[in-house]
UniProtKB/TrEMBL annotation:
Organism in which the protein naturally occurs: Cladosporium halotolerans
Name the UniProt record assigns to this protein: SMP-30/Gluconolactonase/LRE-like region domain-containing protein
InterPro entries according to UniProt: 6-blade_b-propeller_TolB-like, Oryzine_lactonohydrolase, SGL
Domain SMP-30/Gluconolactonase/LRE-like region: 140-379
Signal sequence residues: 1-17
Signal found in the keyword field: yes
Gene3D superfamilies named among the record's database cross-references: TolB, C-terminal domain
SUPFAM superfamilies: Calcium-dependent phosphotriesterase (SSF63829)
The organism's taxonomic lineage, starting at the top: Eukaryota, Fungi, Dikarya, Ascomycota, Pezizomycotina
Record has S-adenosyl-L-methionine as a keyword: no
One Pfam family matching this protein: SGL
UniProt KW keywords: Signal
Amino acid sequence: MVSKAACLLPLVGGVFGQLDAIPKGFQSDQWAWVSNEDPLLAAIPGAFNRTVFDAPSAANVTDQRVASVNDHIQQSSFVAYDQRFFDVIGPNATVEQLQVLPFQVHEAPCYVKESSQLFFVEWGPPGGSENGRHDWQYLLDLKTNNLTRIKTDPPTWNVHGCVYRDGNMHVVTDGGPDETGYLAIIDPATLKRTTLLNNYFERPFISFNDIELDHEGNYYLTDSRSGFGRSLHPFNAPTQPTVYFVNGTNMRIKELAMLEGNANGITLSPDGKTLYVADTGASESKPARRNDQGPREMWAWDFATSSHGAKIPLLVNQRMLSRAIEYFYDGIRTSSNGLIFAAGGEVVDVIDPESGWTLGSIRVGGNGNDPVNIALGDHEMWIVGKGGVWHVKNIKERLSHTE
């Protein structure tokens, strides 16, 4: 049982800050446990304020004890809000930055286990080479940490989402200078790209954002304003942000849901019965701005069943599962036990799929380093985002639930 006794933090301005004590065996310089059982955090003395886009530990506070707490959190790799987070992550986990890259959005990570490689991209303006428009991708050798640029055959413009399955990288794109967004597969050995679908009954997509696959090989795609908002292609947005189902055998396509905000990250529960989608409508485009009143929800739906009890591509029981404590969620993935790992702001949050409680956060250092998307291994994960690539290893709970 974890002790609830407070641990004293370094002296700041003559007073001590307090946090809940971490369990034995966990490193105090890597961990913080924050809960409202501590009266100091439940009812903060003095003045305090932050926006919804800022981390809690970046809040402006006047009480030096709270400032000391925030300083400790800023130096931590793991922040627990629930005792279960310690059991998920375990005492041996560490966070290491593998690649230091420009503070440009990096997206679409795919972990290719057989060759120990990580595929990902540098995505979209502003910044970056080619004004953020790319017909190349990155491939990181996880054994040597050697990073190379690659081009598929034919070249693939502006990849935005990726899932690795059955020897192929399944990708979605925003489209490029002369093409709309599409679904494709890439052979990681030959880099041969095959386009599977590029239209909805001869209507172009807006710009695909992310992708998920179920155990039967069917696709779930988010079509968003993100690529359109950054002018990655010359086409107008023909519809609202939409979630699509695509039959993986015959490419038959169906609209599942439409969002007034922006359809972004997407993932399935391990049993395939629940679909989760991150809404990033708080990030507006044309004109580009962040709206603190805009959508930041993570939505959950269940799948309907036929009269014979079979799952069908029809969503029911929509509910708001969670809203990010800071910023909004971009890439989301589920672990083998159904926990949701959600990247956004300065952290990757771990969320309970039933209650929506945030169990804890994995931090990558702040100071502009922002997770955008993730790829899960068995007891490890890779984070890509603004600032580079990070590896979280020696995680206690098994994460990957795909073969």
